[in-house]
Design goal:
This protein has 90 residues and is of the alpha+beta class. Helix content is 33%, strand content 28%. It contains 2 helices and 4 strands, in the order αββββα. A hairpin with a 2-residue loop joins strand 3 and strand 4. The two termini are 13 Å apart.
């Protein structure tokens, strides 16, 4: 999979692409020293333009695998899930 620098570059590009469909809330964060892409709960836009009910998302690399966690959860909860996954899988 991607090295950390390549992953960060990819996530920064994704944040730019998602900016208009996430009210500018999509962003790159660092979780347990690993870059991650975060879109908060209820901040992305459905095809019809509504945002109600859209799940949050955090994407990162753990154990050499690209991991996507999608849930109706706060930013803090998504970050905690990502931290736990990274710590368990390296």
């Amino acid at each position: 999979m991607l090295d950390q620098g390549a992953a960060r570059d990819r996530y920064e590009e994704m944040a730019k692409e998602f900016s208009s469909s996430s009210k500018g809330e999509a962003r790159v964060v660092t979780v347990a020293g690993v870059p991650a892409f975060l879109v908060p709960d209820d901040e992305s836009t459905w095809v019809d333009g509504s945002t109600e009910g859209t799940p949050g998302l955090i994407e990162f690399v753990a154990g050499g695998q690209d991991v996507n966690l999608v849930a109706h959860a706060s930013d803090e909860e998504l970050l905690q899930l990502a931290t736990s996954t990274i710590q368990k899988n390296g």
